[in-house]
Write a structure and sequence with these properties.
The complex is a heterodimer of chains A (322) and B (118). By secondary structure, chain A is an alpha/beta fold. Helices cover 20% and strands 19% of the residues of chain A. Chain B contains three helices and eight strands. Chain B is globular and about 35 Å long. The chains are: A alpha/beta (322), B alpha/beta (118).
């Protein structure tokens, strides 16, 4: 769906080519994951449902990886009584790619209740994915009861603090941040002073031309603070990334895809592999949304994201429900 | 939990010592009288209901999570803290001292509530 169609832009308050209505219209029910392709510092992402349409050249790029999110293993309520099945379906889609992505990012809420067997099940299912490297950041459901100790033991090897870290792949710098710890009453996600200091130091010596990919569970932009969909101190983190020409921020948490471009930064939230959540403010609460069983996979569906460097608008958001 | 019990005993002893009220020893607190003072807070749609609850000293408040998503009940001042409550799970706390007790869900911190004990 092209964003800048005339009829959708009614109140362009921020002069960014998009109004609230157009914005909401462009939030698409997301799917089982997204394929991200880095080409010349420009990140493009494709919904997994559209993959058969991609040529292998497009799908390869310079660097390709897959983001999955919110698998909520252990959830068994009517919104999806088989979250293992839908996670397996996501893996099947990933494995159907003509060229295997180099690695996967999991942007948190791996488990529903932080139970060891929930993590074990996800580990087991992801073992069957072609990309064997998975980089994790915790969601709030992964750090229940033990301040994230178990998460760190399982996934935090070599990380700092509550599990943040960075790594380089083919010239791109990836930064995994943790914004689900020490949440304060009435507040949003929090990065905290220690992590922000680490981030400042981590990117200090990088060239401005280095493509940056930041991934964290809770959105690092203010999606809908009324439902806690934002991060208190994300502005500080983004300030450290201002100097870079290309910054892509990948989040989960809200169980639907959404994109926003702000200057040099493209924000993208991924769908859940488990259950959909309502659009901001469209329900009494952000709780799991029940859809007819035959529609479940389609609301865990599909979205295309295109990030074009330097472009000050949503590039492409597509929502074909399978 | 152990600490709150000892506070309850201390408070009860103090109250008896001052002879100001009918609430006597701990054994009385644990009997039928306590049952009458038990008050429910329901967690529905990511909110605590009622959001502000006023109870007498010695009342036990029970929270029940009726959402499809787990929640917690955590005192902002560190007075009480539930484990994670999955659907239909409960948490109870006995308030043995007057005061205002703000609390929140540590998983969804936008969810806040208050117990006023008087």
């Amino acid at each position: 769906m092209a964003v800048k169609t005339k009829d959708e832009i009614q109140y362009d308050h921020n002069h960014d080519g998009i109004d609230r209505r157009g914005f909401l219209k462009c939030m698409a029910w997301a799917g089982t994951g997204a394929l991200c392709v880095m080409n010349g510092g420009v990140l493009k992402s494709y919904s997994l449902s559209r993959l058969p349409e991609l040529s292998s050249k497009e799908a390869l790029g310079e660097l390709s990886f897959v983001q999955i999110s919110d698998s909520h293993m252990g959830f068994n309520k009517p919104a999806n009584p088989d979250v293992a099945g839908t996670l397996k379906a996501a893996v099947d889609k990933i494995n159907a790619l003509s060229a295997a992505p180099e690695f996967m990012l999991h942007t948190g809420d791996i488990s529903h209740l932080s139970k060891p067997e929930e993590f074990d099940t996800v580990d087991q299912i992801l073992k069957s994915a072609k990309p064997q490297d998975v980089f994790y950041v915790p969601g709030e459901h992964d750090v229940l009861n033990d301040d994230g100790k178990q998460f760190l033991e399982r996934y935090g090897k070599g990380s700092k603090g509550a599990g943040w870290y960075s790594f380089d792949k083919k010239g791109a710098h990836f930064i995994g941040l943790v914004n689900v710890m020490n949440l304060k009453a009435g507040g949003l996600g929090t990065l905290g002073h220690e992590q922000l200091e680490w981030l400042e130091d981590d990117v200090k010596h990088l060239k401005h031309s280095t493509p940056i990919v930041v991934f964290a569970h809770i959105p690092l932009w203010s999606v809908y603070p009324e439902w806690g969909w934002g991060t208190e101190d994300s502005a500080q983190a983004l300030a450290y990334l201002k100097k870079f020409g290309s910054v892509t921020v990948l989040n989960g948490h809200i169980h639907q895809t959404m994109q926003k471009v702000e200057g040099n930064v493209t924000f993208h939230t991924a769908a859940s592999t488990a259950f959909p959540q309502p659009q901001p403010g469209k329900a009494d609460s952000p709780g799991p949304m029940k859809v007819p069983a035959e529609q479940l996979k389609s609301v865990l569906g599909i979205t295309d994201v295109n990030y074009v460097q330097g472009q000050h608008a949503l590039a492409v958001v597509d929502s074909t429900l399978a | 939990m152990r600490r709150s019990v000892s506070i309850a005993v201390l408070t009860a002893a103090l109250v008896v010592g001052l002879g100001m009220t009918g609430i006597g020893q701990r054994s009385v607190l644990a009997s039928a009288e306590q049952k009458a003072e038990t008050t429910e807070v329901k967690i529905d749609n990511f909110s605590f209901g009622p959001g502000t609850l006023t109870v007498p000293v010695g009342a036990t408040v029970t929270w029940t999570n009726r959402d499809d998503i787990p929640h917690t009940v955590v005192s902002t001042d560190g007075v009480f803290k539930s484990k994670v409550l999955d659907t239909d799970e409960k948490f109870s706390f006995t308030f043995s001292k007057a005061g205002t007790y703000p609390y929140f869900c540590s998983i969804h911190p936008k969810m806040t509530g208050k117990v006023i004990v008087q």
